[in-house]
Amino acid sequence: MKREHVKKEDLYLERLTGLFAESSLLMDVFRRARFLEPLPYYVGAGCLVQTVWNQLTGRPAEYGISDIDLVYFDPADLSFEAESEQIAEGRRQFNGVPVPLDIKNQARVHLWYEDKFGIRLQPYSSLEAAIDSWPTSVTSLGARLEPSGEWRIYAPFGLADLYSLTIRPNKALISEAVYRSKAGKWHSKWPELQIIPWEDPSD
Fold it and tell me: pTM of the prediction?
């Protein structure tokens, strides 16, 4: 059973990178995102997931994509100024990309998260640890394309929910209200999505 699960995940992963390769928007984003090297970084969450949803539901490739999330990890400089410099450089590098860019240093999220959301957050130990806490199992996803052509994918909850169009809460950090708001917004654009209730009887 475990062997079958691993094989299925491998197939999911191969299909995922194939879909990314077919997206002119994402491939442009992946190439431009390399300005962050040698820092650890990923293109994350929404734009990746929504590209797959669009393919699965027969919609245009860029339908519903409202921004590009680009996350990196630089614990050596947690200053607002350093992050602002990366944001400014990102805007220069992404000039001409038709979707707004959102860049964040995940190593400094704990410095502002409580003021914005009322929840005290411990510093993340890595970029992957940050993705582990993102709001849903399906959007806890990061990807980058190495200069060698090798894909680096981080999906701590696997890819099954992505291909079954399932939205499931990741309760590590978010509240029920935030989950319901996000799920409702996505469902209005992709009504095929199956929304798992916050309190799922099957848990």
Answer: 0.91
Reported as a single tens digit per residue, the pLDDT across 9-45 is: 888 999 999 999 999 999 999 999 999 999 999 999 9
CA angle 174–175–181, rounded 5-degree value: 95
- Tokens 């990923």, located at residue: 42
CA dist 72 and 157 (Å) reads 20
- H/E stretch holding 39 reads none
Q: Tally the residues of the chain.
A: 203
The neighbouring-strand residues paired with 42 are: 71
The Cα–Cα gap between 70 and 186 comes to: 20
Q: Is 90 exposed, middle or buried (0-12, 13-18, 19+ CB in 10 A)?
A: buried
Distance between CA 186 and CA 167 in Å, rounded?
Answer: 9
| Contacts for 122 with CB less than 8 Å, ≥ 6 apart | 110
